Amino acid sequence: MAGFLQLASLGLGLWLVRRALYVYKAIRNIRGIPVYISLIEPSSICSAFFPKGTWNPRITHAWDHQERYDEMGAEAILFVPLFFGVAVVHSGSPELNRQLYTDIKTWPKPARALNLNFMGENLLTLNGEDWRKHRKITAPAFDSQIYADVWKVTTNLYCQMMNSEAWKSGDQHYFDNFNDITTRLALLVIAACGFNMNVPWDGPFLREGFEEPLDSVIVRVCKVLLPRIVFPDWIWKAPIKGVRELQRSFLEMQRFLDLEIEAKRKELSLEKEHDTAESKNLFSRVVLASQTEGAKGLTHEEIRGNLFIYLFAGHETTAHTLVTALALLAAYQDEQERVYRHIMSVAGDRDMEYADYSDLTPVLHCFYEALRLYPLATNSLRIAAEDTSITAPGLTKDGNNTVFIGKGFEVIVDMVGSTRNARNFPDPIAFKPRRWESADTAVMENFMAFSAGPRLCLGRKFSTVESVCFLSNVLRDWRFDAKLEEGETATLWLERVMKPDIGVTLKIDNTPLLVTRR
Ligand code: HEM
């Protein structure tokens, strides 16, 4: 026993020395940034270990970021964890973050940020030449043809929704979780424009050979993405009932994508003319482009990886921003009235078309403003590939504004800090869609909720076209209100219902909305 205790104390001692050396090295190699000593690393990686509702360093940090930055007198903070995790700079500086996003050679993604690859490597999980190859093959699929299609499909789904039980009769409806509606919409839009699967609004997403509707499988898979990323593969093979069921959903999704890719490959190899309506969807285009590249094309697994990312990135993000925008408009009635009048001035009672998109800019501004306040992708990790220094306004206490980051150390883009940065977005907590009318290009340049630089979100316009189309239609036909409790103001209502949950993305679930026919 005494021997064991001695051995344990020796092990602990060595570990403490190693940790102390690491802390020393971090502080020596990252200079100019105020240091905050924490017990463990305040990142999403650790937050996965904290049950919902308990103290969560990541959420605390993301939400109270402004206070934390103000306290430290700088827009970037070096968090040094004493006991567990990696020393990492959290940056709420839009200018610094833009440099990280733009200079992808100096600032690649670190290995631990590249783990969304269990369905195959993809654009999100690669760096360097491999990433370039994927981007070259997949990016051309996002063009004006796809966007026109997104508009058409969204309009069609909106009309079906209006004819559904929940909407067609009565002039007022209360939805206790409007997220269900926007999630269904975004999923069906990506299914149609991405995979040519035209699923009816009220119908299940059935596929031959699959027992369960695929929409349930996809939604379940997206819900458990964070634990799937954080925990190692062997855990997912454990003979535990709940784990097995989750793993089965992942395998079903993989089987679905495999079958689709094989079928598409066969179909494309038989067709001489590829310019059919079918070949205009994202899926066909990625398979076709890959086939055209021959040996330089993507492998089966890589195609599957990218398609999975479209399904995941292509619906949750848009769905949550849409519901956030509607909740904010419900709280800010004057803004809703203004945007309603604008939609009427553009379209009156006629059907809106993709050609109207550019005239509906105030609707787009509401979407941007909602995304600015609640940016979906809360954090992006980058690692210094070499010793480097960065200069940006507001970075350091002494006003020198230049910091040094040693090779191998990480910076996390604190998206909430960045999009709520008061220097760039005055009165940052207020919902002010009109701030986007500013002629100052810095407003747009410093807005990085869709990332920036060469790795700018590939689905940005896909998402804005879908959103402007849906918001314009629904706001023209319905007024959105907050159902206030006695004595509650709209601001208090917002505080009550807009409770962010930060996992792989930031989500606000269970948003209650009252709609009244106009
Ligand atoms: C509100 C909607 C959306 C938001 C806020 C958003 C945000 C982002 C962000 C921040 C990144 C960079 C992530 C990083 O580098 O760590 C990204 C990348 C990406 N997004 Fe989106 N996204 C949205 C919608 C979409 C849609 C609809 C699609 C596809 C249909 C999509 C596909 C992608 C892809 C493929 C990448 C990887 C690009 C690359 O690394 O080259 N996104 N997105």
UniProtKB/TrEMBL annotation:
Domain of life: Eukaryota
Residues the record lists as binding heme: C457
InterPro entries membership: Cyt_P450, Cyt_P450_CS, Cyt_P450_E_grp-I, Cyt_P450_sf, Cytochrome_P450_monoxygenase
One annotated GO molecular function: monooxygenase activity
Pathway: Secondary metabolite biosynthesis
Keywords linked to the UniProt accession: Heme, Iron, Metal-binding, Monooxygenase, Oxidoreductase
Pfam families recorded: p450
Entry keyword Zinc: no
Coiled coil ranges: none
Annotated PROSITE patterns: CYTOCHROME_P450
Entry keyword Iron: yes
Required cofactor(s): heme
Family membership noted in the UniProt record: Belongs to the cytochrome P450 family.
Xref: PANTHER family: CYTOCHROME P450, CYTOCHROME P450 12A4, MITOCHONDRIAL-RELATED
Identification of the protein by name: Cytochrome P450
Species annotation: Phlebiopsis gigantea (strain 11061_1 CR5-6) (White-rot fungus)
Lineage: Eukaryota, Fungi, Dikarya, Basidiomycota, Agaricomycotina
